[in-house]
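Entry 0007
Protein: DC-UbP/UBTD2 N-terminal domain-containing protein
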Amino acid sequence: MGCAGSTPATKESGDGSGKDATKKVRKPKPWKHPQPITVAQLRQMRDEFWDTAPHYGGRKEIWDALRVASESEVALAQAIVESAGIIVSNADLTLCYDERGAKYELPKYVLSEPTNLIQDS
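Output (structure tokens):
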């Protein structure tokens, strides 16, 4: 028993939206920056990206969720993207969408450290 509008909504949620469309999140593959960079330089690049990310389009709350997910362990990142309604296109979080279809592209340097990272002296 329910209203006539409740049945289509249930069918839609099983047809590829929401959790059904979320891939399992995994760690990014190892990558190498064009030049060796220090931890401080990597941190600065990440801060600059996250400061400007909302200007690329999409919703700020999705960018915030992606930032927390990118800085978390894989299991927590999975829970974050699922609860925020983020559709993961690439399992390493480099390409995601929100429920409205807005695209979110994350560079590898915000997701993991390069293989040629130099410790600050």
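Curator remark: The chain has one domain: 25-114. The helical segments are 6-13, 39-52, 60-70, 74-83.
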